[in-house]
Amino acid sequence: LAKTTQPISMDSYEGQEVNITCSHNNIATNDYITWYQQFPSQGPRFIIQGYKTKVTNEVASLFIPADRKSSTLSLPRVSLSDTAVYYCLVGDKDRGSTLGRLYFGRGTQLTVWP
Amino acid sequence: DSGVTQTPKHLITATGQRVTLRCSPRSGDLSVYWYQQSLDQGLQFLIQYYNGEERAKGNILERFSAQQFPDLHSELNLSSLELGDSALYFCASSVGYTGSYEQYFGPGTRLTVT
């Protein structure tokens, strides 16, 4: 079964770059790795997803090594409003014709200080 | 606003009772996912439907069931409720069902079992 591991918490200051790594083994071969942001009492919000190497959008970058056993979410120049919980989401390996599962990590609480 | 709606927002009920949570996906999305979020368990994937069919299954209890209707809205039925079922229940939707997990989450239903 797939399993994800993330740091429980991280602290940063405004304007700094933050990198959050998620370790995930046994993930589905053809699935993307997806990251979400969640504020208290709200549903998670999609940030970015990737399959291999590097993906960048207007809010973040995602680095995925060739073995796909981990991924790193990079948030450039964080602000106070980036204080939230960040989750990685992966799918089970070799789902094939069987019904697979999705796994959210336990999440990383990022706190940005002024 | 993600475009995903969930009703009701809050639900308070007693142990042993049965409740139904409702979700309407974003326009054009064919996949619906259900998640349970509690303080001690984090975000737990329950089940996924695609265009009316069950596609993936997580740690969904036998007391819980779900379905997706022809108009693509979905319902999660929780029966024989226990105190431990108190949690936030999120519905999410996406375009497809394999590979990409770019999901859009609703605001959630907070269930309190007394």
How would you summarize what this structure contains?
Chain A has about 110 residues and is mainly beta. In chain A, about 0% of the residues lie in helices and about 50% in strands. Chain A has no helices and eleven strands.
Task: Give a written overview of the molecule.
The complex is a heterodimer of chains A (114) and B (114). In chain A, the strands form two sheets. In chain A, strands 2, 4, 5, 9, 10 and 11 form a six-stranded mixed β-sheet that branches. Chain A has a five-stranded antiparallel β-sheet with strand order 1-3-8-7-6, with no helix packed on it. By secondary structure, chain A is mainly beta. Chain B is mainly beta and 114 residues long. In chain B, the strands form two sheets. In chain B, strands 2, 4, 5, 6, 9, 10 and 11 form a seven-stranded mixed β-sheet that branches. In chain B, strands 1-3-8-7 form a four-stranded antiparallel β-sheet, with no helix packed on it. The termini of chain B are far apart.
User: Total number of helical segments of chain B?
Assistant: 0
Alpha-carbon Rg of chain A, integer: 14 Å
Report strand % of chain B. Answer: over 45%
Strand content of chain A: over 45%
Average the pLDDT over all residues of chain A and give the rounded result.
89
The share of residues in helices of chain A is under 10%
What keyword list fits this structure?
heterodimer, A: 114 residues, mainly beta, six-stranded mixed beta sheet, five-stranded antiparallel beta sheet, 0% helix, B: 114 residues, seven-stranded mixed beta sheet, 53% strand, globular
Write the layout of secondary structure elements.
The complex is a heterodimer of chains A (114) and B (114).
Chain A: E1 3-5, E2 9-13, E3 18-25, E4 33-38, E5 45-50, E6 53-56, E7 61-64, E8 70-75, E9 84-91, E10 102-104, E11 108-113
Parallel strand pairs in A: 2-11
Antiparallel strand pairs in A: 1-3, 3-8, 4-5, 4-9, 6-7, 7-8, 9-10, 9-11
Chain B: E1 5-7, E2 10-13, E3 19-24, E4 31-38, E5 42-50, E6 53-57, E7 64-68, E8 74-78, E9 87-94, E10 104-105, E11 109-113
Parallel strand pairs in B: 2-11
Antiparallel strand pairs in B: 1-3, 3-8, 4-5, 4-9, 5-6, 7-8, 9-10, 9-11
